[in-house]
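Key result, reporting period 2: structure in, sequence out.
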């Protein structure tokens, strides 16, 4: 692979990853659905959880202070998969354990025999900050000072946003078109068909785990697949499916043993 081709491919990979990042804001938290990260904005403390766990947190946050039945969580957070109540119990336990690592112990509430909920007050206002405010007020009173009379509490709003802007997509599509035309001209990339769907790759035989993932994901309706190796001793592969105008990352579905993409 020529050096400039490697650089161009890396740029496209970075833009491709940026173009599909899905970040939502709930009270004090940023939820990165793409990278499965829950981040507290005040101090940038964050935890990484599994796909089902990030979907559970998001669904509960979207319906804060409402009890979500177990059946609904199983349906919404494991779409297309057959799972049991035990899977939900384990996911909730793991999610709580992860949140405990950043001292968020009171977010998820269990409603016996019903389901789960997120405490809306704790989602938007930290219990720890309440304690710190009390300590500061006590210190002020001890020193004989009064807090400013014009001090007001600014109400906080929950904001749900999806990043990024359309500019990334336009740039990405332009680079992809340029890249594919150039690579075809220099015979750098090759194309084959798997179950009638074109697959763009580097010309080296695709390993069975990649081929199996493409076949098993055929029902998703991808019009084209892009597969390429990631440099490193593990020889991992990155796999994208082109569905409509979106590039969907299927890399974490490739079974690669000890080099499984996580």
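The corresponding designed sequence is given below.
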């Amino acid at each position: 692979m020529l050096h400039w081709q490697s650089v161009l491919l890396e740029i496209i990979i970075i833009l491709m990853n940026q173009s599909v990042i899905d970040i939502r804001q709930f009270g004090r938290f940023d939820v990165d659905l793409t990278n499965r990260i829950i981040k507290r904005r005040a101090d940038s403390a964050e935890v990484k959880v599994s796909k089902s766990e990030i979907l559970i947190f998001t669904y509960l946050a979207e319906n804060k202070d409402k009890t979500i039945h177990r059946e609904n969580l199983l349906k919404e957070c494991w779409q297309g998969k057959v799972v049991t109540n035990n899977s939900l119990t384990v996911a909730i336990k793991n999610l709580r354990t992860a949140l405990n690592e950043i001292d968020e112990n009171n977010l998820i509430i269990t409603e016996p025999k019903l389901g789960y909920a997120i405490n809306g007050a704790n989602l938007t206002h930290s219990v720890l900050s309440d304690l710190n405010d009390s300590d500061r007020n006590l210190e002020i009173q001890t020193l004989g000072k009064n807090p400013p009379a014009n001090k007001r509490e600014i109400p906080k709003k929950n904001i749900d946003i999806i990043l990024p802007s359309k500019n990334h997509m336009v740039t990405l599509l332009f680079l992809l078109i340029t890249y594919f035309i150039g690579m075809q001209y220099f015979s750098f990339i090759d194309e084959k068909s798997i179950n009638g769907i074109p697959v763009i790759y580097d010309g080296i035989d695709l390993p069975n785990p990649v081929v199996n993932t493409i076949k098993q994901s055929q029902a998703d309706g991808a019009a084209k697949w892009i597969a390429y190796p990631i440099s490193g001793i593990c020889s991992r592969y990155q796999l994208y499916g082109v569905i409509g105008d979106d590039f969907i990352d299927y890399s974490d579905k490739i079974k690669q043993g000890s080099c499984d993409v996580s």
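Residues 93 and 110 are 11 Å apart (CA to CA). The helical segments are 3-19, 51-62, 70-77, 85-100, 120-124, 127-142, 166-185, 208-216. This case is discussed further under Risks and Mitigation.
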